[in-house]
Amino acid sequence: xxxxxxxxxxxxxxxxxxxxxxxxxxxxxxxxxxxxxxxxxxxxxxxxxxxxxxxxxxxxxxxxxxxxxxxxxxxxxxxxxxxxxxxxxxxxxxxxxxxxxxxxxxxxxxxxxxxxxxxxxxxxxxxxxxxxxxxxxxxxxxxxxxxxxxxxxxxxxxxxxxxxxxxxxxxxxxxxxxxxxxxxxxxxxxxxxxxxxxxxxxxxxxxxxxxxxxxxxxxxxxxxxxxxxxxxxxxxxxxxxxxxxxxxxxxxxxxxxxxxxxxxxxxxxxxxxxxxxxxxxxxxxxxxxxxxxxxxxxxxxxxxxxxxxxxxxxxxxxxxxxxxxxxxxxxxxxxxxxxxxxxxxxxxxxxxxxxxxxxxxxxxxxxxxxxxxxxxxxxxxxxxxxxxxxxxxxxxxxxxxxxxxxxxxxxxxxxxxxxxxxxxxxxxxxxxxxxxxxxxxxxxxxxxxxxxxxxxxxxxxxxxxxxxxxxxxxxxxxxxxxxxxxxxxxxxxxxxxxxxxxxxxxxxxxxx
Length: 512
Prior knowledge:
It is a single chain. By secondary structure, this protein is of the alpha/beta class. The strands form four sheets. The chain has a six-stranded mixed beta sheet with strand order 7-3-2-11-19-18. It has helices spanning about 5-10, 65-75, 105-110, 120-130, 135-155, 185-195, 250-255, 270-280, 305-310, 335-345, 365-375, 385-395, 395-415, 490-510; strands spanning about 55, 60, 80-85, 100, 160-165, 175-180, 200, 205-215, 215-225, 230-235, 235-240, 260-265, 290-295, 315-320, 350-355, 380-385, 435-445, 455-460, 465-470.
C-alpha cells in the first residue's frame, strides 16, 4: 500500500514518528569489524548469529525511497541482480512528500525556451554558502539532471509538463512538477519498473549490519518483520536509508535540543545507513549536515493556521528565554531554513504579536488559536497585559516590557535599529497579546556519510571502502548547513542523480 502526500501537506503535517533509536550493535556478534587496521582482514560475520536465510545478489540497496528506487532500477538495467531492503511496509520514504524535482536543460525547459547555465546555479550556491560547498558536486548534478528527466519518463514516471521556480520560494525555473503534484507519479511506476526488472523487494526488512571481509563489503545482515535474520552475500551495498532525523539520540548527540523537536517525517528514518557505514570504518560528517525543518507552534501541528501564520508571516516578533529579540523575523523570506537556523541558537523561542496583526485575517488564525487553547494546548496564550503574558510564557516581565516598548518605537519610526526588519513588516504589538511557544518540525536530515563524486563511501583518510556507496539523504553534501529551497527541488533531484550514480559505479566495481 502506498501513501499519497504532496510536499506542502508533508511540511504541514505528515505521518508518524520513527521506529526508535538504533543500537550500537545488532544481535551481539553481528557488529561488523572496523575496516581500519589488522581487524579488517577478518570476516566480521564469522562470529555472528546463524542467519535464518541466506541469499546472494550483485548489489543490495538499503532503503526504498526516491534514491533507493532510482539505484535499484538503474542497477537492474545494468543487468545486475538487486535486492532492495525497505524497513517499512511501503516504498517512497520521505520522498512521498515531494511535488517534483530539480533539473537544468531538460527537454521540457528547451521546449519552453527556459535557459539556465551551470554557472548560474553554481554561483548562486557558492555565494549562498560563502563558498563552503563543493561546486564539483553541483556540477555533476546539473550536468546529469536534464538526462535524468528523460530517463525517468522512459521508466514511466509522469510529469505535469509545468516547469517553474516553485513560487514564491525559488530563484530559477528548474522545478519539474510531478503529474497531479503527487510523488506517486514517481513512486508507483518506479516500484513497478523495479519489479518488472526482477529486483527482489523486501519490505519490512531492516538492514542492520555490514559484513566486511579483508576491508571490503562481503554482505549485509538484515532483520525481517518477524525478527528473523537474513544474510545477503554481495560485493556492493548502496546505503540510501533516508537519514537519521527520526533518531532523537543521534540528534541530541549533535547538540540539538530534542525537547523542542517534533519529528514529522515518514517512519523508518533512524540513521541505519550512517550507523552501518561508521561501523564499517566510514567518516561521520553529520555535524556538517543540514535539515529540512520548519519552526512551528509547540503542542500543535504545522497544518494549523496558527503554525502557517508563524512560518510565513514576518510581522510578529520572536523572543528568546530572556525575552529579547534575536533576529530579523523577515529572514524567512530568504528561505524557511533561515528561521530555524536563527532559533537554534536560543534555549527557548516564543512568537509574540497583537490583535492588530491579525485584525484583517481571513485564514482563521485567531479562531484556530482559541480552538487550540480550548483543547488544552498549554503553549498558546492570550493576555490583556504584558505581565500576564510574561508569566504565562515564563519570562521576565520587565525584560518583555522593555522589548515590546523598543519594538513599538521602531514601528512608529519605521526603522528597526536592531535587526533592520523592513518597514512594511513593522506592526506595533498592542493588547490583547498573543504568545506562542515555538518548536521545530523536523522532516529529514540531509547528509552524514562522507562520500566522493563516485558515491564511494570514504574512511577518515579519504580512501574508499571497497563496495560501499551512499545515495540520497545518507550521502548528500550539496548544502552548507541550510537546505536552499531557492534552488527548487535540488535535494530530490540529487536523490535521483545519486541513486543512479551509485548504481553505475557499484556495477562497474563488480565488473572490474
